[in-house]
Amino acid sequence: MTSDPAPIVAAALPADLLDELEAVYKDIHAHPELSMQERRTAGIAAGWLEHLGCEVMRDVGGTGVVGLLRNGEGPTVLLRADMDALPMQETTGLPYASETRGVDRFGQDGFVTHSCGHDMHVAWLLGATRILAENRSAWRGTVMVVFQPGEETGEGARAMIEDGMVRRFPRPVVALGQHLSPDPAGTIGWRAGAIMSASDSWEVTIFGRGAHGSMPEKSIDPIVMAASAVLNLQTIVSRQIGMEEEAVVTVGSLHAGTSENTIPEEALLRLNVRSFNEQVRARVLEGIRRIFRAGALGAGADREPAIAVLGEHPATRNDEAATRLVAGAFATHFGTDRVHEMPRVTASEDFGLFGAAWGIPSVFWFVGGTDPAVLDAAERDHAQVPGNHNPAFAPTLHPTIETGVRAMLAAAGLWLAPKGGAA
Ligand code: ZN
Ligand code: ZN
Fold first, then answer.
1. pLDDT tens string 292-313
2. CA of 112 to the centre of ligand 2 (A)
3. Distance (Å) from CA 20 to ligand 2 centroid
4. Which DSSP string corresponds to 53-92?
5. What's the pLDDT at 11?
6. How far is the CA of 196 from the centre of ligand 1 (A)?
7. Is a pLDDT exceeding 50 seen at residue 42?
8. Measured between alpha carbons, how far is 110 from 116 in angstroms, rounded to an integer?
């Protein structure tokens, strides 16, 4: 350890806290909940916050929880963790692996797994809140602890904001969040500016006209329209977006028809778009609309395709100045060998909506969770280490837990430190 400018961050966390966080992590991991259904997890978080003396508001935007830890005059700092898991079957073989089932928003019943690490995010934030609650002389101001539902579906942050976050709670000076990554456990990745892509998910219904498969002239074939659209969509990035810009268009689901000799009435596609800047995003989305409209026109369909938005994540943009401060605090607390500037990632987040709602800077960073020995073995064997959204994603508990708790405290301490801080 080098010098410690924000005394909130203990060099070592209390052993009983680590035991508690390990237990709560394993419990939440074994009992994952799908997006917007995080009732049990929210109950655990709210119970902790109440026990620590926070003012607690439950059911914010569905299952969201907001805790206010007030400690005199000073800035408010928003700390956020998301709580939801994913619809897939865990294959880690861990003793605390999930066997939980659930029904997703499309009505599909299946297994549920914390394969994005949001269980770790909850444990980190509970730990950071306990340290803050028990060391009030080391800081001043208000900590706004946010446990958010529905990150994976892009619904949760929006739902909390629409439930009056800005009106109901004090205006923070900064919003801070962190995500578990498959990088070596105990390391931190940061980046100023755009760090994660925008994501837009759409469901498109193509309307045709059904007929016997032997009489295509009586039909307007939605399968041919869908097939043509899928190929045409790939020309948007290759022909309408310049080589210095980036975007991805993926059709991840395509359903139509039941039997081989019947032309169905409709085809249903679900697609996803990733982009890093607003102009590119708008151009790609407009290109998609045009292709579907043109396909219907070309086929002589009676109706234009219907487009429903399944989810939207804005690009995650880290405030330049605030991020450099946070990165500096990480380097001080963890040493430069554990802290690195990272490339942009194409995954997406709705964390940025909180900063945007208040018009305040936000900073989001990544904390590694893979045992370095596992990474070394994988490199030797030219194998892949399971990352986020992989059913075998199995973060090592230490030092992952303590790194996330201390990273959150190191960052928050910049604004909460008694001598004015960074506000
Ligand atoms: Zn995820
Ligand atoms: Zn995630």
1. 999 999 999 999 999 999 988 9
2. 14
3. 23
4. T-EEEEEETTTEEEEEEEESSS-EEEEEEE---BSS---S
5. 66
6. 12
7. yes
8. 17
How far apart are the CA of 286 and the centre of ligand 2, in A?
28
pLDDT at 26: 98
* 351-392 confidence digits (pLDDT tens): 999 999 999 999 999 999 999 999 999 999 999 999 999 999
Q: How far is the CA of 356 from the centre of ligand 2 (A)?
A: 19
Taking the CA of 119 as reference, the closest ligand is: 2
Q: Which amino acid is at 81?
A: A
Ligand approaching nearest to the C-alpha of 152: 1
Are 8 and 409 in contact by the 8 Å Cβ rule? The answer is yes
Read off the tokens for 201. Answer: 């998910």
The CA 92 to ligand 2 mean position distance, Å, reads: 18
Whether 223 shows a pLDDT value over 50: the answer reads yes
pLDDT category at 1 given cuts 50, 70, 90 is very low
pTM (whole model) above 0.85: yes
Entry field: residues in the chain: 423
Distance from the alpha carbon of residue 208 to the mean position of ligand 2, in angstroms = 38
Strands 101-103 and 109-111: antiparallel
Tokens of 220: 């307007």
What is the 3-state composition of the chain as percent helix, strand, coil, each rounded to the nearest 5?
Answer: 35, 25, 35
Please check whether residue 395 is in contact with residue 180, taking contact to mean a CB–CB distance below 8 angstroms: yes
